[in-house]
Amino acid sequence: MKARIAVLGGDGIGPEVIAEAVRVLERMATLHDHEFVLEHLPFGGVAIDEFGDGLPPATLEGCLAADGVLLGAIGGPKWGPKAPVRPEAALLRLRSALGVYANLRPVKVIPALRDSSTIKAEIIDGVDMLFVRELTGGIYFGRKWREGDRAVDECAYTVPEIERITRVAGHLARQRRGRITQVDKSNVLETSRLWREVSQRVIDAEFPGVSIEHMFVDSAAMHLIRRPRDFDVILTENLFGDVLTDEAAMLAGSLGVLPSAALGDGRRGLYEPIHGSAPDIAGRGIANPCGTILSAALLLRHSLGLEREALQIEAAVNAALEAGARTADLTTDSAAVLNTRGMGDAVIAKLG
Ligand code: IPM
Ligand code: MN
Question: What is the pTM of this model?
Answer without folding.
Answer: 0.95
